[in-house]
Amino acid sequence: MDQNHQIYQLLGDHWLTAVVSKNDLLELLTKTTLVTYRKRETIVKRGEFSHHLVFLLNGYVKLEIEEGRRDFIIDIDSGMKFLGLPLTLTIDKHLFSIVTLTDAKVVFIPVSDILELMKKNSKLTSEIIKCGNESFVTPMLEKLTSSAQNNIRGRLAKLLLHLSTKVHKSNNFALLISRLEISHMIGFSRENVIRVLAEFNAEGILQISGKSIEILAPERLEEITRYS
Fold first, then answer.
1. With 90 as the cut, is the pLDDT of residue 87 above it?
2. Structural domain range at position 204
3. At residue 82, does pLDDT exceed 80?
4. CATH value at residue 49
5. Cα separation of 206 and 50, whole Å?
6. Alpha-carbon span 149 to 142, nearest angstrom
7. Are the C-beta atoms of residues 146 and 158 closer than 8 Å to each other?
8. How does residue 1 score in pLDDT terms, banded at 50, 70 and 90?
């Protein structure tokens, strides 16, 4: 079995296989490039021209913006997902960097070929818009709202819920980023992040062991997001 058929099989029930015919998708895959990355390698750099869509086949990555000595982490994503989908199709340069948090495989899909396929496939166009809104635009708006409304307990609770439900899909997971990187995600100091994590641990909301976290009371985190 060649590489393109292997990628097609790995896609499984991903929405791409539902809206694009097998022949069209296999033809598209002949124009793609599959790259394997090691942990903490840069996939794309902010400011580079964005000629390709980035599809994370497996592994975990962080999306970040570097500003001087401080990096602002936009999000953490796991496999089987387009990264920054709406921006790549409409803006000619990457507005953020993508860095691996684990070993990862990435498929680069030429933007020009996706746009050509969208012209003759309205279902693909609709699904790309939907996917872009659900995976990027809406979460960004939620983060902006949280920044305006939540204190550190609320923001950290939202991040932990996001990691468990959207990224790892489990209440028991290993933190792939440092306490400092968490502080860059929620806009508070590393010391405050450590303090509040310790508070959640003492309150029986979660259990921390090194980089491992088990969320014991997700309903308590949900409550904190509403009132803190």
1. no
2. 150-227
3. yes
4. 2.60.120.10
5. 40
6. 10
7. yes
8. low
